[in-house]
Write a structure and sequence with these properties.
heterodimer; A: mainly beta; six-stranded mixed sheet; 9 strands; B: mainly beta; seven-stranded mixed sheet; 11 strands
Chain lengths: ~110, ~120
Amino acid sequence: SYVLTQPPSVSVAPGQTARITCGGNNIGSKSVHWYQQKPGQAPVLVVYDDSDRPSGIPERFSGSNSGNTATLTISRVEAGDEADYYCQVWDSSSDPSGVFGGGTKLTVL
Amino acid sequence: EVQLVESGGGLIQPGGSLRLSCAASGFTVSSNYMSWVRQAPGKGLEWVSVIYSGGSTYYADSVKGRFTISRDNSKNTLYLQMNSLRAEDTAVYYCASDSSGSPLGYFDYWGQGTLVTVSS
């Protein structure tokens, strides 16, 4: 089965740039989606298809995907960005299967 | 406005059965790819199952043969029938909608979740 690997935690000071990685075998050939989840809340889609943003998501959120690593970049980090972030792809090697990364806790110092 | 409202969670003994419901509004369940995603306490997200707009269904290996996803178009509602429940099925269960039109799409709408606790 396909595995996505995220760092457990990332810390950044307000105003700085946070980069959260998602590693997978040849992930660059897949469409990667990113979700933000705050405590006690449902996940929210923040980036889809590697680098597109849903309406209502600030331009500070961006994504890239190449080779074996996808990256979610949050520019000018704010206290309100503190949350868990998950990457997600579909594995279609056999029956379609959704795959989530283990999640990354973003801490704003 | 798109809304997903789950119900049916609760405390159930190991080996028991439970049916979760997800009532949708603002769109037609049968026109989207609909999934169930769960989250064990303090853990990450885990995809459980998907039903395509055409009716095809797929499951995570961890629930295959025990869970069944279905929908009732007349009620615009998604279901998850869970049988032979185990302690490791304890989680908040979210229904999620994919309106991308692609089977490799993204979950752009989520319900608030319903908690299933499997314990004796």
